[in-house]
Give the backbone structure.
Amino acid sequence: MPLIEAVVAARNDVVSVDARTAAGTKAYLAGVRHLRFLFLPKGWKADCKNGVESVLHVETGMRIVYQSVDQACVRVRGPQAINGKGPAAEAAVRKGQGMLFSAEDLPEIAPERIANLNASLWFLCVSVSEDDDEDIRAELSLPAAIEKGNFKGFLERIFIFKRGDWKSQVPLEGAPEDDHAYEFSITRKA
């Protein structure tokens, strides 16, 4: 998926003298950009309601937000935003999803009977392991709420790349298969 590839490439485009937050910032910017590259040609609109960058499907009111997370695609635990969500995101989730449970009673993953809720604010959650550059995971998630700056329970989670899936990706068409695909000639001027 080109969007995830762009996020990984942006994270890797840092050097030792960059700011400590450079990899995360570049990943976020690439995530927003490529989310829009993916959805705008399909009739969605770029949106930034109350400072929450997203794509919006005008007819349905559905919005999708890019989010870097600690660990995506772990069945027993929902992803947590690396940088906490603010009051605007909390309000957008509350308005879009409604509060089906009290904050204390929210399950990590909501029961199947509410999976078809007409909700509107999804998050494309991407995690890139610091220790294993091949452990890239992605999921599209519908949070039940945001509490204290982070996700609190989910109504639905769609796993896109689980642990180990990234390694098995087919190289891009036309990409060189090995380091010897290009021959270089370096000459020195006299």
